[in-house]
């Protein structure tokens, strides 16, 4: 049989197989990795601008310049072109084999007013950007998409997120899929800049961020250099795990690829961080990490079991409401679950590693599904989590269907603080 005929037969088989798995929806084919024009001319302007939260009422602005003498200053104010404040920050560079990064700047600005638009400029030159700070109180809306990469589906996902009204972006690992090719970090930074420069992007690491070379290069150097998160502000000793608060919700970003066993640094930090949360004031507790603990897809089975055995008791005791993960290139939402079975006082787990990566979708699920699995589908898309008030949040998942965001799954989630699960702890 000729090679071209073999490919045609396999393609037809896969299309038929996809149609039988989800009879009411035929998934579109994969899309190619995006390619960006390369320029040998250095640019004096700020590049790859993105922002993240940096403690109470503060935001960290990060960007890269080719000019190594460029200052790490950010000018900002509430009127276009009128910068009433200036902050100075820090910078770093790194080398990776034959690659040397530009000058990577991180500058914290603030204190800032909530729900306010600020205009800012990086390094004393270049274009003006604008950002909107998160609200002080509920409601607050998060856009959620993991395993993004740089494909045609990534572009579609980002365009859909751009259309929704959200306050922050949560990304549970696997950002650029650079996979040792460092200039792909640069193209990813340019790809997400329109969104990441306007709303805070809060990220945690995935396996594609590791990029370690045994005996030569430690892991996560590129990720840690470029995407600095508020780990110091939250008492963590590592950029791979940290926490932050927004509008009365406490968000914990854990590291699936940092030590997580009992008495490890991450375990001790998590235990201390949870102990600081006052559930009388903080009505919602949300956790993100890369490798899912509850997964009925055939892909990546058992990879999260060791971390779950170590840390799930801590999350359950603290009554975590929602857990968001990536890694599996498909979507799945569970009922409230703990210790491998449905539990009304457990967390709702959502796997959302379907942002648009180059590796394609994980199409095969276990059949029949576990009793805790509420909805699952292998499609690219993004999620939106709107915490409406102290008792209710609305979750929706939007499939990328022919470049139109189609709402395929939605549910209301009642906070555990409103369900009686932690009434004794609050003395009510």
TrEMBL record:
Gene3D superfamilies: 3.60.21.10, Purple acid phosphatase-like, N-terminal (2.60.40.380)
EC number(s) recorded for this UniProt protein: 3.1.3.2
InterPro entries (UniProt xref): Calcineurin-like_PHP, Metallo-depent_PP-like, MPP_PAP, PAPs-like, PAPs_C, PAPs_N, Purple_acid_Pase-like_N
Coiled coil: none
Domain spans labelled Purple acid phosphatase C-terminal: 347-404
Occurrences of domain Purple acid phosphatase N-terminal (ranges): 46-133
Substrates-to-products reaction catalysed: a phosphate monoester + H2O = an alcohol + phosphate
Superkingdom to which the source organism belongs: Eukaryota
One Pfam assignment: Metallophos_C
Stretches assigned to the Calcineurin-like phosphoesterase domain: 141-331
Keywords: Glycoprotein, Hydrolase, Signal, Zinc
Cleaved signal peptide residues: 1-23
MF annotations from Gene Ontology: acid phosphatase activity; metal ion binding
CDD domains registered for this protein in UniProt: MPP_PAPs
Keyword Zinc: yes
Needed co-factor(s): Zn(2+); Fe cation
Similarity comment: family membership: Belongs to the metallophosphoesterase superfamily. Purple acid phosphatase family.
Protein name according to UniProt: Purple acid phosphatase
The species this protein was found in: Erythroxylum novogranatense
């Amino acid at each position: 049989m000729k090679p071209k005929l073999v490919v045609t037969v396999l393609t037809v088989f896969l299309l038929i197989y996809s149609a039988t798995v989800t009879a009411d929806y035929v998934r579109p084919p994969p899309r190619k990795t995006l390619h960006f024009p390369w320029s040998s001319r250095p640019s004096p302007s700020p590049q790859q601008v993105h922002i993240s939260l940096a403690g109470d009422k503060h935001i960290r602005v990060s960007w890269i310049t080719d000019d190594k003498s460029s200052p790490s200053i950010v000018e900002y104010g509430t009127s276009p072109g009128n910068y009433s404040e200036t902050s100075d920050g820090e910078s770093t560079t790194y080398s990776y084999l034959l690659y040397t990064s530009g000058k990577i700047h991180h500058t914290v600005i603030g204190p800032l007013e909530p729900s306010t638009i600020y205009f800012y400029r990086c390094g004393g030159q270049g274009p003006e950007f604008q950002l909107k700070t998160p609200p002080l109180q509920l409601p607050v809306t998060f856009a959620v998409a993991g395993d993004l990469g740089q494909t045609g589906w990534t572009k579609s996902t980002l365009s859909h997120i751009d259309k929704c009204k959200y306050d922050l972006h949560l990304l549970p690992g696997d950002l650029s899929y650079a996979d040792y090719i460092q200039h792909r970090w640069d193209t990813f930074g340019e790809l997400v800049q329109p969104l990441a420069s306007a709303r805070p992007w809060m990220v945690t690491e995935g396996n594609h961020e590791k990029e370690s070379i045994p005996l030569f290069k430690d892991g996560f150097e590129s990720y840690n250099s470029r995407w600095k998160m508020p780990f110091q502000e939250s008492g963590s000793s590592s950029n791979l795990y940290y926490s932050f608060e927004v509008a009365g919700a406490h968000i914990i970003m854990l590291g699936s690829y940092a030590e997580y066993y009992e008495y490890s640094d991450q375990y001790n930090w998590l235990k201390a961080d949870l102990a600081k949360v006052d559930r009388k004031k903080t009505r919602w507790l949300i956790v993100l990490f890369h490798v899912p603990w509850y997964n009925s897809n055939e892909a990546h089975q058992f990879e999260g079991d060791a971390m779950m055995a170590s840390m799930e008791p801590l999350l359950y005791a603290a009554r975590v409401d929602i857990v968001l993960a990536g890694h599996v290139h498909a979507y799945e939402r569970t009922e409230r679950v703990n210790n491998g079975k449905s539990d009304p006082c457990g967390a709702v787990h959502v796997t959302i590693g379907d942002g648009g990566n180059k590796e394609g979708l994980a199409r095969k699920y276990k059949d029949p599904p576990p009793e805790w699995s509420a909805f699952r589908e292998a499609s690219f898309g993004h999620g939106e989590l709107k915490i409406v008030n102290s008792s209710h949040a609305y979750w929706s998942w939007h499939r990328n269907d022919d470049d139109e965001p189609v709402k395929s799954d939605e549910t209301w989630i009642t906070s555990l603080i409103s369900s009686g699960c932690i009434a004794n702890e609050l003395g009510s």
